[in-house]
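Can't paste images in this forum, so I'm doing it all in text. The chain is below; anyone willing to post the predicted C-alpha cells underneath?
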Amino acid sequence: MTNLNLKRLKAVAWKEFVQIKRDTRSLAMALGIPIFMLLIFGYGLSLDIDHVPMVVWNQDASSQFSRDFVLNFKNSKYFKITGYVDNYRDIEQKINDGSIMMALVIPKDFSRWIKAGDIAPVQLIADGSDANTATIAMGYVRSVVSGYNINLITNLFAQHGLRAPKIIDARPRIWFNMGLTSTWFIVPGVIAMIIMIISALLTSVCVAREWERGTMEQLISTPIKTPELIIGKFIPYFVIGFFDLIIGVLMARFLFAVPFRGSYFLLFILSALFLTGALSQGILISVVARTQLMASQLASLSTLLPTVLLSGFIYPIFNMPKFVQAVTYLIPARYYIVILRNLFLKGSGMYVMWDETFFLFLFAFVMLFWAVKKFKKKVA
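Text version of the structure:
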C-alpha cells in the first residue's frame, strides 16, 4: 500500500467514473434502486398489527353487558368489526375466504353469569394460518378483556356503594420509540441493507468487466500497481455509495419521519467504514469470479440473504438458535444496523458503539487487504 502514485490512481478513478457514466443501466440501478427499496420496505413492510378484521356473534345482544363488551373491541384501534353473524357456518365461510381474521362469540347467558358473579366465558375463533399475526392479535384480545374486567369490577362495586378492591396498575413507559412505530425500527435497517447490497453488486463486476472486455491485459501492461488499480476502482463507487447513504438518511428523516438523535459526524464516519468494507467485498468477489454473471450472483448470495435474515434487520438475533447466533457475528450488517438504530433512535455516543466500530474496521481492513492481495497482474 506504500508509494502510491497519485497521478496513476487519479487516472484509474477517472477512467472508472467515465465507464460508470457511459453504463446508464448501472448508474440507474445505483441511484434508483435505493429509493425504490426504501419506498417498498418503508411503506410495505410493517410489523404493526392494526385493524384486525373480525365478526361478532352476540347471542346475548339484548343485554347492556354484552353490548359494552363488544364496544371495547369496536373502540380499539387493533380490531375492525366488519359485521355481525348468527351462526358458525358464516364464521367458517368468512375465515376460509380470508375476509376476517377472528370471530368473537358471546353466549346467551353472558349477562346472567356476570350478574351472578360467575365466570362468563366467551369464545374467540382465530385464523391460525398466519401464526405470528394470530399470536399478536390474541395478545390484543387479552388486553381488551383485561381492561373490560377492571372497569366492570370498579362499576359494580361503585353501584353498591363499596370500595373497589385494589389492583396492580402497571404503567409502561416506552423509551426511544414511544408510539412503537415499526417504521422507525425498519428504515435504519433498510439503509444498511441498501448500502451492503448495492455496494457489493456495483463493485462485483468492475474487475470482471475488464477481463470480459479484454481491457485488463492493457491495464496489466501499464506501470500501474495493484493497490493503485484496486483503490482507483474503489473511489467512484465510494462516492456513489455515499450519495445513496445521504438519500437514505434524507428519506428517513423527512419522508418517514424517523427521528435522528445522534451525531451526523459519527453517522458519516462509521458509514464510510462500513461502505469501505462492502465495496472491498464486491471487488474481492470480482477479482475471484472473473465473469460478470458469476460475480453478480456471488455478490447477491453473499449479501442479500445474510443481511435480511441474519443481521437483526427483521428477526431478533436473541430469538435465533445458538449456532445461528454464532454465525451472525460474521455478518457485518449486524454491527452497522445496531449503529444506525443507536444513532437514529437513542442518540448514542461513540462510547456505546466501540465494539461495533471495531468489527466494522476489522471487516473493512480484511476485505480491502484480501482484495489487493488476491489480484495478480498476470493474464493467467
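The chain has a mean pLDDT of 85. The longest helix spans residues 131-159.
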